Amino acid sequence: MSKIREMVEDAFADPKTENSIVKPYALTHGTLESYSLKNSRRFYEKFLGLECVQHGPRTIAVRCGFKFHIIAVEVGNELNPVGYLNHWGVDVATREEVDAAHAAALAMQEAFGIRSVTDAVDQHGVYSFYIQDLDHNWWEIQYYEAGYQHTDMFEFGDVFDSSKSD
Fold first, then answer.
1. What is the rounded distance in angstroms from the CA atom of residue 4 to the CA atom of residue 87?
2. Using CA atoms, how far apart are residues 95 and 23, in angstroms rounded to an integer?
């Protein structure tokens, strides 16, 4: 059995659209930019372990574990770098896997064009580190000790009341 099937019994969450204008049934994809699909795809598949398919001359779809995908669009020098707060999360099964990925990122930084690797630390409830890829996209490699963070995040509900802030 794959790790995702072991950790996540039910990958569905009923949309709460009763009070919204748009009534979506799923959040299906996101987008990131790439200088070169060939180089980016190598990083996604060989380093991050993501599945890729090219469905257009300048686009590939990227996924891992769920029926949600990222579209990588080759834009060449028109690429707009993003900050680390605009990152994609990749979950692994143990702290040791975070440490192994961190060591690999440092060892293979030049080979994969990794621009930056942060220290692995305990932060916001996970053990993780960030890497900035060759296209200036940020990835967080994380381990959540309590199981599957997504489930807990939504089961805990609102912890802060944003209506009281400026």
1. 21
2. 38
pLDDT digits (tens, 9 = 90+) for 25-64: 788 889 999 999 999 999 999 999 999 999 999 999 999 9
Place of tokens 């380093």: 47
* Position 10 pLDDT exceeds 80: no
CA nearest 97: which of 68, 125, 119, 120? 120
Helices (H), 53-140: 95-107, 109-112
Q: Which amino acid is at 58?
A: R
Distance set, CA 41 to CA 5, 33, 34 (Å):
25, 12, 9
Task: Look at residue 54 and give its three-state secondary structure.
Answer: strand
pTM for this structure? 0.89
Q: Residue 76 — left, alpha, or beta (φ > 0 → left; ψ -120 to 50 → alpha)? A: left
Task: Enumerate domains of the chain plus CATH numbers.
Answer: 3-164 (3.10.180.10)
The pair of three-digit structure tokens given for residue 71, joined into one six-digit string:
């579209």
Task: Give the C-alpha separation, 155 to 166, whole Å.
Answer: 26
Residue 30 near residue 70, CB atoms below 8 Å: yes
Q: How confident is the model at residue 165 (pLDDT cuts 50, 70, 90)?
A: low
